[in-house]
Write a structure and sequence with these properties.
The chain has 323 residues and is of the alpha/beta class. The chain is built from 9 helices and 9 strands. The protein folds into 2 domains: 176 residues, HUPs (Rossmann fold), CATH 3.40.50; 106 residues, GMP Synthetase, Chain A, domain 3 (2-Layer Sandwich). 42% of the residues are buried.
């Protein structure tokens, strides 16, 4: 399914007013929101702050599965916007909940439950009755329900436990990514063009066992891919893809570092062009750029990763993320 935002028929101002009205009518007491720093949760947080002011408590959960420097960047961004943000380091509990979990659906549900449990604790501190989420249309469409197949359960949809003691408010539920970006530009959010990052974070980019060591390796590889492709686009070597990252595969192969045999894992580089994430085509990254990425990844993760491959699959048949 492909969606395209028709700016001439549904003005951004109308979308903003719709979201504000939903928030004002749906929240009459203290609310909390998870702010990951991604575009969806950031837009939802700013709209909710505009709608209910000090009734909203913004919380950033450091899961240990975020991008390099993510916690510092998110804190700085919210500080610049004048919105108070509480940072909670819950990395130990997230890694503990993922121990031995390798199925992608089970990962998403485990992460979704931990997010809710963290917010239940925050709820008790501030007396919150509402949980605001940055859920957008592709999240619940891909999570299935009714006659829709489950493509992948998004942690903020399929991972929500049945016994949650919070009323959920989703001001962006019927919006698509291009519409959310338009709202972000309208609100003057500096990160409005920031590439998407999955809600479960690196847990769905580390295929197989999610350990601190493997998450750290994936984090470094992702940073290299993001930086190298951004530099290539700024130099005019290629167009900037809609999304670009690395995933760590539980596939070991024999390699050589110097004169030593290495039995290391594999990193896959993924870059796609898309409008709203519902469909996508792989991006043709120049070979010289990919070669530089491969060299830096294998040198930076010497002994852990010894092979780098490039994913040339469209969506469909693949999804953008590997899990």
């Amino acid at each position: 399914m492909t969606h395209q935002f028709k700016g001439d028929t549904m003005k951004t101002e109308t979308l903003v007013n719709e979201a504000l009205e939903l928030l004002k009518s749906g929240i009459d007491d203290t609310a909390i929101i998870a702010c990951s720093g991604g575009i969806d949760s950031t837009v939802a947080a700013i709209l909710a702050h505009k709608a209910v002011g000090d009734l909203l408590h913004c919380v950033y959960v450091d899961t240990g599965l975020m991008r390099l420097g993510e916690s510092e960047e998110v804190s700085s961004m919210f500080d610049e916007m004048g919105i108070q943000l509480k940072v909670v380091d819950a990395s130990d509990r997230f890694f503990s909940s993922l121990e031995g979990v390798t199925d992608p659906e089970d990962k998403r549900k485990a992460i979704g439950e931990q997010f809710i449990r963290v917010f239940e604790e925050e709820q008790r501190e501030v007396g919150a009755k509402y949980l605001v989420q940055g859920t957008i249309a592709p999240d619940w469409i891909e999570s299935g329900g009714g006659e829709r197949d489950v493509i992948k359960s998004h942690h903020n949809v399929g991972g929500i436990p049945d016994d949650i003691d919070l009323s959920i408010v989703e001001p962006l539920r019927d919006f698509y990514k291009d519409e959310v970006r338009a709202i972000a530009r309208h609100l003057g959010i500096a990160s409005s063009e920031r590439q998407p990052f999955p809600g479960p974070g690196l847990a769905v980019r580390v295929l197989g066992d999610v350990t601190r060591e493997r998450a750290d390796a994936c984090r470094i590889a992702c940073d290299i891919v993001e930086r190298r492709i951004m530099e290539a686009a700024q130099s005019g070597l290629c167009d900037l893809p809609w999304q670009y990252f690395a995933a760590l595969l539980p596939v070991r192969s024999v390699g050589v570092h110097g004169d030593a045999r290495v039995h290391g894992e594999t990193v896959v580089v993924r870059a796609v062009t898309s409008l709203d994430g519902m469909s996508a085509r792989y991006s043709p990254i120049p070979h010289d750029v990919l070669s530089g990425i491969s060299t830096e990844i294998t040198n930076s993760l010497k002994g852990h990763v010894n092979r780098v491959v490039y994913d040339i699959t469209h969506k469909p048949p693949g999804t953008i993320e590997w899990e």
